[in-house]
Design brief:
The complex is a heterodimer. Chain A is α+β, with helices and mostly antiparallel strands. Chain A has ten helices and 16 strands. In chain A, about 55% of the residues are buried. The longest helix of chain B is centred in the N-terminal third of the chain and has 16 residues, at about 115-130. The chains are: A alpha+beta, B alpha+beta.
């Protein structure tokens, strides 16, 4: 059906005076299994084919997008391309040649069966209940398999394919003791997730939520803090847009003009690696057909490069860094990273707490999309964690905020942990260790 | 759209294979989304989003599938795949009849498909010019124009057969101000369930200048001090505080499994007697409104809290089964890619007895929040947070200097009891809400209201 659509579209476009068609095709398949109280509560299945099309009309670029290709009204889409080209008057620039020889992308691993996954989820759910009598409700235990094939094609018959897949597990666990209630939402993202990972997620979540039951705020003031590895993942991804060249060029990043200068502590490094073991964004080319590449973004605290797509690179007469990825298939490429990695130290979380002596271990923040500003690096976020006294956990802490500037905070970096967690999505995946920070402002009582 | 014979085949097969309820949702949406920086178009994303979602229930077990392949053979095969493992109950379907066509409550004068690209660009140009002209400190104005026309068909095995066209129009204006102190932004995003006629009486220039004013004001703002203080939240999108503090926790998706702090509390005093909270999807031409929800149930005005007493929840069909309560016209989804669940529409606090001036003058020390950025909540504990985009200190009953960077946190159950003054100037503004069934258009509103004590997360 897709091939028929592409050839019909190409033919009718030609008749309408639209040429040099470029197709971006995303084909996804998903399967989610969710268990509640030992029953399969929900199964979701999907398959979709999504097509974004650019073409040249009178020298200018127009675009449209189509989902149900079997019933699409091609004339209407051609009219859109003409209108956009005529009005925007953005010169059409063809994508670089797709004739690179990259071989055939890796194929999908066979997905586990719904019954098999349901069995793992039941075991994980039971594990959470069994771990402590105060575990009151395991609201969701789910497992998702996602596979995605990206095809870049044109009306000359050139074609380039890439493929990614990941699996994600989620568990929400509520603990209750009298009037006290705490909840946690645990998630894991990897190329493959089976029974063992689900069980460890249940253990980790149940342990955490029970230990948080007695949480209360601390006094407002400056504290030494350890940011747990999972939170470091979230924060680095939230501020990563600061190194996106499009934002820098639009004066929407405080890092503008800072390549080659030290922006954070020399202890801190940030690397990008599309071939990172365990990374999910194993793309060989970006959404513009540029090969992805490994690189250092921050080295010994120094900003080494911004991330470019074709357009931002062209503006500075540079080469794209292979970071031209779309936010949504139906939009032109913006900028994103593949897999990110923060090289770790040799200190376990226990070592970090002993080194800190007094302070806070921050495990979770919420509302990062609203409370972290990637333009300025400023943040103020609701947080949870533990009060550390004499190098060990004294009690749980909630209803506080941490606030400051991301880069100033990383300037106060004292030690890096050795244990990793992962986070992110297909728009940027990360593996990060915990960080011990000399001081951070905390608002509480 | 699908033929009714095809829909009947799908529903029949789903019941035959073990469902006790089946539903077909088809969507065909025309999108125009144009983003411009200054007057240069940065991104045009215009086209059609279309596909089909099928849902089958067997008791509390639900199956959902969606596809962009609308052929009958594919849809029937999808039903077979979905229904694997369901107990065979052989329930009979109610015949479909003719579809009910909705939409009359929200008249649309100029449909987006009848508006050419150039007229949309004129709206962007007006907003950009007004924003840039506001002050020399304004360095960028970024405008996103969006409209959509969503045709939906909803049919189920209980005889619901609804068709609706939802038209939404919105413009999002961000202004950036820069001086030697740094870079700050301001934002405003008016929208409605209307067509292009919305712009005939919308003062676009005022909204653009307001976004620019916030950016310039924040340039001169000091960092917000942290700690406990009284908080006065102004009318309009300040309603997002209640959206986070208690709205999400009253959705059946949180309540049904007993994991919301408000589960099992109907009839109890959960808030100050000054608080009456309403979710109303019927408000004519409002951004968060719908004629019919995404399960084919007409929307309605739901009083959730009345004078502090919990009166009801927002309920969808599946969670209604768990709660043994009737749906409330609250089932929503972003698109055919999502199974519907209970969500908010236009949620607001009703007017109270105080004037805004009275509220501010009776506050000795506190924070005045004019605009809110966004926030989130953990419905199980009720712990919520929201980040402010424009705020000022209140000292000695007067609004004094602007402060920036604050996130306010609290606990829904506690904050509701601590609302000690509610104004008489209700206003509803427009936004998005992100949750289980995707990103939705919502309205949030309130009169100016005061919370006696909240934790203000400052940066010094």
């Amino acid at each position: 059906m897709l091939d028929t659509f592409l050839s019909d579209f190409t033919r009718e476009a030609k008749q309408a005076g639209i040429g040099r068609l470029e197709f971006y095709i995303k084909e996804c398949e998903d399967q989610t299994v969710q268990v509640y109280k030992q029953e399969v509560e929900r199964v979701s299945l999907s398959s979709e084919t999504l097509v974004y099309i650019e073409g040249e009309y009178q020298g200018y670029k127009g675009s449209t997008f189509v989902e149900s290709v079997g019933t699409a009204r091609i004339g209407e889409h051609l009219d859109l391309i003409r209108q956009i080209a005529t009005y925007n008057k953005e010169p059409f620039r063809p994508r670089p040649s797709l004739s690179q020889s990259l071989g055939v992308p890796e194929r999908a691993q066979e997905a586990s069966s719904i019954d098999e996954i349901a069995r793992w989820l039941r075991l994980a759910e039971q594990r959470a209940y069994d771990s402590d009598r105060r575990v009151d409700n395991v609201g969701t235990s789910s497992h998702t398999t996602h596979r995605e094939r990206i095809t870049l094609a044109n009306d000359q018959g050139d074609r380039l394919e890439d493929f990614v897949q990941f699996e994600q597990a989620r568990m929400s666990i509520v603990a209750r003791d009298g009037d006290k209630v705490q909840s946690t939402f645990e998630s894991r993202l990897a190329t493959s997730i089976a029974q063992e990972e689900l069980t460890s997620l249940a253990d980790q979540g149940a342990r955490k939520v029970v230990s948080q039951l007695d949480a209360s705020p601390v006094k407002t003031g400056q504290y030494a803090v350890i940011l747990q590895n999972s939170l470091v993942c979230d924060l680095v991804l939230a501020f990563l847009p600061g190194v996106y060249a499009d934002r820098v060029q639009k004066k929407m990043s405080v890092l503008a003009g800072k390549v080659g200068t030290r922006i954070v502590s020399p202890l801190f490094h940030l690397l990008e690696d599309p071939n990172l073991p365990g990374g999910i964004v194993t793309r060989r080319v970006d959404d513009e057909g540029t090969p992805t590449e490994g690189k250092s973004i921050i080295e010994e605290g120094q900003l080494t490069t911004f991330l470019h797509n074709l357009e931002t690179a062209r503006a500075l007469q540079l080469h794209s860094t292979g970071n031209g990825f779309k936010n949504l298939y139906r939009e032109p490429p913006a900028i994103a990273a593949t897999n990110l990695y923060i090289p770790g130290g040799t200190h376990t979380l226990v070592d970090l707490m002993q080194e800190m002596r007094h302070g806070l271990l921050i495990t979770d923040c919420d509302g990062i999309f609203a409370g972290a500003n990637p333009v300025s690096g400023d943040f103020s976020l609701i947080a949870k964690g533990y009060l550390i006294e004499e190098g060990s956990i004294q009690r749980a802490v909630n209803q506080i905020t941490i606030g400051g500037n991301f880069y100033e905070m990383l300037n106060e970096l004292r030690l890096i942990g050795s244990e990793y967690d992962t986070g992110g999505s297909l728009h940027g995946f990360i593996q990060a260790p915990a960080l011990l920070i000399n001081k951070l402002f905390v608002s509480g009582i | 759209m699908l033929k009714s014979q095809t829909i009947e085949k799908i529903l029949d097969l789903a019941l035959e294979l073990g469902g006790d309820f089946a539903e077909v949702y088809q969507e065909d949406t025309r999108h125009s989304n144009i983003r411009a920086l200054h007057d240069r178009v940065e991104s045009s994303s215009c086209g059609r989003e279309s596909g089909i979602g099928i849902r089958i229930f067997s008791g509390l077990n639900s199956r959902y599938a969606f596809t962009t392949n609308e052929s009958e053979d594919n849809l029937l095969q999808l039903v077979r795949n979905m229904a694997q493992g369901l107990p065979n109950q052989g329930k009979r379907k109610v015949p479909l009849g003719d579809p009910t066509i909705y939409g009359e409550a929200h008249p649309i004068l100029t449909k987006p498909q009848d508006v050419d690209y150039a007229r949309r660009m004129e709206v962007i140009r007006r907003a950009t010019s007004a924003g840039m002209a506001y002050a020399p400190e304004i360095v960028q104005v970024s405008v996103s124009y969006l409209d959509l026309e969503q045709d939906v068909l909803i049919a189920n095995s209980e005889g619901v057969f609804a068709e609706d066209t939802r038209v939404k129009t919105r413009i999002l204006i961000s202004a950036y101000a820069q001086n030697e102190k740094g870079l700050q932004s301001g934002y405003f995003g008016p929208g409605a369930m209307r067509g292009f006629e919305y712009y005939a009486d919308l003062d676009i220039e005022w909204y653009a200048q307001e976004a620019a004013r916030v950016a310039v004001t924040m340039l001169g703002a000091d960092k917000c001090p942290g700690g406990q203080m009284s908080v006065v939240v102004d009318n309009g999108f300040g309603g997002l505080m209640f959206h986070e503090a208690c709205g999400h926790s009253l959705e059946a998706s949180s309540v049904a499994k007993g994991t919301s702090e408000f589960s099992g509390k109907l009839g109890q005093q959960i808030a100050s007697p000054l608080v009456t909270l309403i979710d109303d999807g019927t408000l004519a031409n409002e951004w968060g409104s719908l004629s019919v929800d995404d399960e084919g149930h007409p929307t309605q005005k739901n009083v959730l809290i009345e004078n502090g007493i919990l009166k009801g929840y927002m309920i969808d069909k599946l969670n209604g089964r768990r709660l043994q309560m009737e749906p409330t016209g609250s089932a929503r989804r972003q698109s055919y890619r999502f199974a519907p669940t209970s969500r908010m529409t236009n949620t607001y606090i009703a007017n109270g007895p105080h004037s805004k001036e009275e509220i501010i003058s009776s506050t000795d020390r506190g924070l005045f929040v004019k605009y809110i950025n966004g926030g989130s909540v953990n419905p199980a504990t009720g712990d919520f947070n929201f980040n402010v985009s424009e705020a000022y200190l209140i000292e000695g009953g007067r609004i004094t200097k602007p402060v920036r960077g604050a996130t306010l946190i609290g606990n829904g159950g506690t904050i509701l009891q601590q609302v000690d003054m509610v104004g008489d100037n209700l206003e509803i503004r427009q936004g998005y809400c992100y949750a289980g069934s995707g990103a939705l258009f919502i309205g949030a509103g309130q009169p100016t209201a005061r919370v006696a004590a909240m934790t203000v997360g400052g940066v010094e």
